[in-house]
Each structure stands twice: as structure tokens, then as C-alpha cells.
Specification:
The chain has 318 residues and is mainly alpha-helical. The strands form 2 sheets. The chain has a two-stranded antiparallel ribbon with strand order 1-4. The longest helix is centred in the first third of the chain and has 32 residues. The protein is globular.
Length: 318
């Protein structure tokens, strides 16, 4: 067990250092490119930290196991908002910009609703022969994703602080981003594998391990990146990371997976789908309710309470 604990600590160290270098490198690239930290968080950081989900979902689709693809994305999006955004908001409230309010946050809710409506189209509307995302719908998801990225780049307007001179050379900034992502993903993998081994040695069940360590493991890059971004007072990058990750999970990962193999929703529970919709609504609530233009500690506390209730439900239904 000692060896596994040392590997676990090494994985955790890689995750922390990787997140630190990723945030600093991405901030420098944003300044050089004249982009906001939100858009960099949405694209480079958000898509980059979604690579574990992409690999798991694409492999699941190739092997014809849709439950892995759908369950992985639904679980990851719930975890991203309720736990990661909740923790980040408690550390430091995140500013919500005007463009976040009129474009990014509404789209996060819209694509979540789209996923549910398309996934359950037979149950809700009697369309098709089964509740699934087909290849044509997967292509539509991918087109929406590309259009959103293009529009985000064209409409982006960084503030004065984000246009300050970069601290590192372009080559070093790129190396920090690539190296940081690699350390995040590899370190997260080491951590999950070691934590799973320790949990089994401690006598915990595979079911318990699956909904705790494995479910949260693929979101560890987002968690570490958001915490580091919050500590460095880069809340827009943290928010962009989660919004970008969630939108990428649905449009890019599930869209691409459905093109490979249609994804069945027959195994999805109503509680899981309900929590997915609730998580998107909570982000909207933090953005539009109240006078403050930030996702504050009250919203963070509510998100964490919802995560605790959902986690309790999962434990009771093992």
C-alpha cells in the first residue's frame, strides 16, 4: 500500500504543478493573441482538460458501449458545476461579464436541454424508433460546436488587464500549456489508478469506487485548473474552463461519439438527467439573480449542497 500512496501523491503533485503552468501559459497566450482569458479558458483550457472524457467516450462508442459515453459526459458535467464551480466560487467569487450573460451561459443551458430533448425524442415526441443520439444529430452537434467557437473568437473583447504585456516568450508559453496539460492528464491518471488500488486494499466495493474515484477522476484536470485560476485571481479563466468543458462534452464529445456509433439513452436515469438540468440552471441563477455580476459564495454553497444530496442518493442506490 505504501507504494500506491507514493504514486498517489506523485500524481497529485503533477496535477497541481500542471494546473499552475497551464494557467500561466494560457494567460500569456491570451495576451499575445488579444483574446480574453474566458475565451482561452473556453478553448485551449476547456477542450484540453476534456481530453480524458473524450478518450473514454470515443473508446466506448467504438466498442459499441453507449452507456460509457453518455454516463461519462452526464456525470462529468454534473461534477463540473456542482463540485468544481461550487468550490471555486467559495475560494473566490467569479465575475460574470455581459457577453457571458447573453451568449455563453444561455448556450450552456440550451445545449443541455438539446441533449435531453434529442436523447429522449422517442419518449417525449414519439420520433424515431428509440431514445438515442443518431449520426445525423451527432453531426448537427459538431456543426453547432464549430459555429460557437468561431463566434466566440470573433466577438471576443478582452479588458485592459488582459491586454497587458505577456510575462513569457511565445515558445515558453506554448510549452507551459502543452506540458501543463500533459502533467494534468497523466497526473490525474496516476492519482485515479493509485486511489483505486488503495480503496480496494481498504476493502471498499467496486461500485463505491466507480461513483467516487473513477467518476471524479476524469474531472480532476478541471478541478485543479479552476482552483489554481481562482487563487491567481483569474476567475474568468475558471468559468471559461467549466463552461467550455461542459459544452465540449456535449457537442464535441457526444457529437463525435454519435457519429462513430449511435448513442442510446435507455440506461439513463431520470434523477441523473434532472441533476444535469439543475446544474445548468444553477449557473443561470448565479448569473441572473441578484444585483451582483458574479458567481458568488451563496451560489457556490448551494451547488455544493446539491452535490452532497446527489452523492448521497448515489451511495444509497449502489
Amino acid at each position: 500500500m505504501l507504494v500506491q500512496i507514493l504514486i498517489l501523491l506523485a500524481g497529485l503533485a503533477l496535477v497541481v504543478f500542471g494546473a499552475d503552468y497551464l494557467v500561466d501559459g494560457a494567460s500569456d497566450i491570451a495576451r499575445r493573441a488579444g483574446l480574453s482569458e474566458f475565451v482561452i479558458g473556453l478553448t485551449i483550457v476547456g477542450i484540453g482538460t476534456s481530453m480524458p472524457e473524450l478518450v473514454v467516450s470515443f473508446l466506448g462508442a467504438i466498442q459499441g458501449n453507449a452507456d460509457i459515453s453518455i454516463g461519462n459526459v452526464v456525470g462529468s458535467n454534473i461534477f463540473n458545476v456542482l463540485l468544481i464551480l461550487g468550490v471555486t466560487a467559495l475560494i473566490r467569487p467569479m465575475e460574470i461579464t455581459r457577453i457571458n450573460r447573453i451568449k455563453d451561459i444561455p448556450l450552456n443551458l440550451a445545449v443541455t436541454l438539446l441533449l435531453v430533448l434529442v436523447g429522449f425524442k422517442n419518449t417525449f415526441f414519439g420520433w424515431g424508433t428509440a431514445d438515442e443520439i443518431g449520426r445525423i444529430e451527432g453531426l448537427v452537434f459538431l456543426v453547432i460546436f464549430i459555429a460557437y467557437l468561431v463566434y466566440s473568437f470573433k466577438s471576443d473583447k478582452p479588458d485592459e488587464e488582459e491586454t497587458a504585456a505577456p510575462e513569457h516568450s511565445l515558445s515558453l508559453s506554448l510549452l507551459m500549456v502543452v506540458g501543463g496539460l500533459a502533467a494534468l492528464i497523466y497526473g490525474g491518471r496516476l492519482f485515479v489508478n493509485a486511489a483505486t488500488a488503495v480503496a480496494r486494499l481498504a476493502g471498499l466495493s467496486d461500485a463505491f469506487i466507480a461513483i467516487t474515484i473513477l467518476a471524479g477522476g476524469t474531472s480532476m484536470p478541471e478541478l485543479a485548473t479552476c482552483i489554481v485560476a481562482a487563487l491567481k485571481k483569474r476567475g474568468q479563466m475558471a468559468l471559461g474552463n467549466i463552461i467550455g468543458s461542459n459544452i465540449s462534452n456535449i457537442l464535441l464529445i457526444l457529437g463525435g461519439s454519435a457519429v462513430i456509433h449511435p448513442l442510446s439513452f435507455s440506461g439513463m436515469g431520470l434523477v441523473d438527467i434532472g441533476m444535469l438540468l439543475l446544474s445548468a440552471l444553477l449557473v443561470c441563477g448565479g448569473a441572473y439573480i441578484g444585483k451582483h455580476r458574479h458567481l458568488g459564495r451563496k451560489s457556490g454553497t448551494l451547488m455544493l449542497l446539491c452535490e452532497a444530496v446527489y452523492f448521497t442518493y448515489l451511495i444509497l442506490h449502489l
